[in-house]
Amino acid sequence: MPKPSDTKQRIQDAARELFASQGVQRTSLQDIADRLGITKPALYYHFPSRDDLVRSIIQPLLDDGERFLLDQEARGDTPVRELIEGFFDFNYRHRAPVIMLLAELPTLADLGLIDKVLGWRTRLTTLICGPEPTLEQSARAVLALGGLQDVCMQFPDAPAEELKAAAVAGALDALGH
């Protein structure tokens, strides 16, 4: 018999696949249980609700993003290129949940996750442009950061280092650096 952590991981893996193929709202806990050949009560033992399951899948992204930002904010003097490279690396690592975030904006907004992710952009803009960026600086930061995230999802088969070089160069150009 698998350990509970194995079952929990199997549930998350099956949920990721189903969420990606049919969406969060169209995936029931019964669908996930059926995919795994377990009972719905067994699934409920690990995740009391679909929201709890979605949060568990997104939480590593949130924890990693928060850790990255806190480290940069504590440092306070990170060169812009390093910030952009670090943000690329974060987004590249978490492409799958970011795609899920984008595909399920209403669901994830209800969970408060969208506000968190958008808040990261504001914090990064402050690190890049200072505490009171101009409208132009803010607009350039949105283009740079959003574009960098989009590149990670748009080119899944591109060689990682080549993609990173192109994305970082583009983001720095958008920022005027």
Specify the overall morphology: elongated
* Number of structural domains: 2
Mean pLDDT: 89
CATH domain fold name of the largest domain: Tetracycline Repressor, domain 2
Q: Quickly name the level 1 CATH class of the largest domain.
A: Mainly Alpha
Contiguous low-pLDDT stretches (5 residues minimum) are: none
Oligomer: single chain
How much of the sequence lies in strands comes to under 5%
Query: Structural class given helices, strands, pairing?
Result: mainly alpha
Intertermini distance: 56 Å
Give the strand tally: 0
Fraction in helix: over 70%
Summarize the structure in words.
The protein has ten helices and no strands. With 177 residues, the chain is an all-alpha fold. It folds into two domains: 1-48, Arc Repressor Mutant, subunit A; 58-175, Tetracycline Repressor, domain 2 (Orthogonal Bundle), CATH 1.10.357. Helix 1 packs across helix 2 (29-36) and helix 9 (135-154) packs antiparallel against helix 10 (160-175). The protein starts with a helix and ends with a helix.
Main attributes of the structure:
177 residues; mainly alpha; Arc Repressor Mutant, subunit A; Tetracycline Repressor, domain 2; 10 helices; 80% helix; elongated
Please sum up the structure shown.
With 177 residues, the chain is an all-alpha fold. Helix content is 80%, strand content 0%.
Secondary structure topology:
Elements: H1 4-22, H2 29-36, H3 40-46, H4 50-75, H5 80-93, H6 95-103, H7 105-110, H8 113-129, H9 135-154, H10 160-175
